[in-house]
Input
Amino acid sequence: MGWWITLGVLILLGLIPLGASVKYNADGPLVKIIAGPVRVKVFPLPKKEKKPNPKAEAKKAKKEAEKKAKKEADKKAKAEAKDKTASEKAMRPLVEEEKGGSWTDFLPLVKVVLKFLNGFRKKLRINRLELKLIMAADDPCDLAVNYGKAWAALGNLLPQLEKVFVIKKRDLEVECDFTASQTLVIARLDLTITLGRLLGLVFALIFRAAVKFIQIMIKRKGGAKQ
Output
């Protein structure tokens, strides 16, 4: 019975969605981390109010004065040692440059990473996609033209996104504001991936990379014997 409970817990953990929610409006960007039903704001961070502390301010002023005096002394010392430093650099031995690895060994590892990224993006889910564009222009004719171009751009973008992601909810709008001085945008994007899918992709990446690395090491050992 115990292992059934353990298996059930692991399955539930694997179904937990992880991701991020990014929103942009007049208040600026807002970023939240998603972990199941929990959403934690990571940007912008809440501002902490600092209480005035006379002792700390006096200590800070003293440190700044000492720092300024030290900076002037260091500047003077550097000016005096300029010629000596230049001669020492000329006498130093040349440092051996870092050597590059074999391209033929590097390319298979790149393919493994690209395959991981391709699988990663296919496992991602767009739970919510919102974009509201409020167009503005001095000339009504220009505004009408830009309005049509904006809808055409969104019409081309959405099919490209749907080829890569599963979009559960979308809300795209373009509006015209003849009184606005600048074009405004309101956007939101919620991306998630389940913990089980993420772990599966990571383990697959580790396994493929290990296989390629072993193949490279065997190839190098075989080449050394010849």
Remarks:
- The two ends are 58 Å apart (CA to CA).
